[in-house]
Design goal:
The chain is mainly alpha-helical. The chain is built from 6 helices and no strands.
Length: about 190
């Protein structure tokens, strides 16, 4: 989290980190308890990443790309599906048969979303925006990720201005809950 560079480099690095966590989950046998830990870590990263995209990336997509409203709406819809899956995963332990189904569905959804962004959205954004705009967006995304929630909140607003107003407070509560519970930490 918080890698530096323009918004595209920042978000692609996040994508690689999530894929690494998915690979760790896939490398472990079903029921292995660390699968839950890695799923929690992936959820924390995905939520921070999604909130930052919804606060800054998608408004820029709407502003700079010809088909920006449609693209941003589709990306936000993808986020909503993934967030509901993450919420459902919260209630499952690694040895719950439902865990395997949900984590498989989440990985498929996220991988499809990543491919869409990296193959279509990011190249178009790179052409439509100046390097300064991309760098400024990268800085805004990094700041947003530091304050963003770490847990899924499917009913929370996903468009400005409400998401920008609510996310920092929700993020503070989530980080406190994570610290107290040890969520996402290996034993």
């Amino acid at each position: 989290m918080g890698h530096g560079g323009n918004v595209i480099d920042e978000l692609v690095t996040d994508h690689h980190e999530v894929e690494d966590l998915f690979a760790k989950i896939e490398a472990l046998a079903p029921g292995e308890k660390n699968r839950k830990v890695y799923a929690e870590q992936a959820t924390m990263e995905l939520i921070r990443h999604s909130v930052a995209e919804e606060e800054y990336l998608y408004p820029a997509v709407r502003e700079h790309l010809v088909n920006g409203n449609t693209m941003a709406d589709r990306e936000i819809e993808d986020h909503s599906k993934a967030e509901q899956l993450m919420k459902d995963l919260e209630g499952c332990e690694a040895d719950d048969p439902e865990f395997d189904r949900l984590i498989g569905e989440l990985m498929s959804e996220v991988r499809s979303h990543i491919a869409e962004e990296e193959e279509t959205l990011f190249p178009q954004l790179r052409v439509a925006c100046s390097e300064k705009e991309l760098n400024d967006l990268g800085e805004k995304v990094r700041r947003a990720k530091k304050l963003a929630p770490t847990r899924p909140h499917p009913s929370a607003p996903d468009t400005p201005p409400a998401n920008k107003l609510l996310a920092p407070g929700t993020g503070l509560v989530d980080r406190l809950r994570d610290a107290l519970s040890g969520r996402g930490k290996e034993d």
